[in-house]
């Protein structure tokens, strides 16, 4: 399914129909924990685990040289959205067990992890906006160094080079600011993916009272002291594989909760790794037993991204996104090239500048086709997390112990 064509479901829990996990008739089996064995639950959980494994195997196999490119990050978000929808179906089909310990606590913990992920989504949206600002400076370079055959003077002039050099210098300073600053200018004008309804953003029940598409994060904007690294740590706190007695007591539903929690943590971590945001940190350890069928591809991707971050040319990057790396290389190459130019410009030097400009144009093209769809997907992830939490809390209130 193309990333730009993915349409999130707005169907409430009560009207979910058949899904990949529900080819059998939809029947809700009340579980008497430890006494009644639900074969349907076993089938759903097994199908869910295999589905997650297949999705991440595909994501890992498709990475190759495209790992951390805009196209790959968009596929990552598509994968998350499918996982979220399948998890939603599992919970709906067995919602009668929601209020029973320890499942009630574990589901509540999952929803709180989701709340923390909302701020990551807001920070990533700011990062996308930052990339757009960088893209504007590249456009100045492209216009300044346009093919002289299309210009009246017909030769690469000193004014053109100075204008391009200034744009590249400004771009370099912006990128250095992003690497070094604890907060960016964008943090002062962050727009959440929703609208204020007048309720306190610190009200833990705010999501349950919201309706339609008017949601907002618990923190309306990312403050200057906000840290992506600390937020990821908060999402991963106390995230551990369920123990045997917990699996038995819940009929295995805690396995699905742990699976989706791990997927949430990995996806948020990968976004922070790729896109510029405040206080990026990649030191998150994934405690996933390899016995899970989806563990191998996720751990493999985690390892490959960490290795990419350790490369000499990527250590100080403001983001591991492939397009950022290409942008930095092109800008550095053109800057060095123009610094070495003397007038009148030699034909050989002018040809080198043209080659650099062509590569820069290709980088701009790839960003033009990827940033808007990426922002729409991050927006969809934000709203899907909010919707899932709202519906889940509603189920918890309807099926108390």
UniProtKB/TrEMBL annotation:
Transmembrane segments: 247-272
GO CC field: membrane
Keyword annotations of the record: Membrane, Transmembrane, Transmembrane helix
Cell compartments where the protein resides: Membrane
Membrane topology classification: Single-pass membrane protein
One Pfam family in the UniProt entry: ROH1-like
UniProt similarity note: Belongs to the ROH1 family.
Protein name per UniProt: Uncharacterized protein LOC105052000
Originating organism: Elaeis guineensis var. tenera (Oil palm)
Lineage: Eukaryota, Viridiplantae, Streptophyta, Embryophyta, Tracheophyta
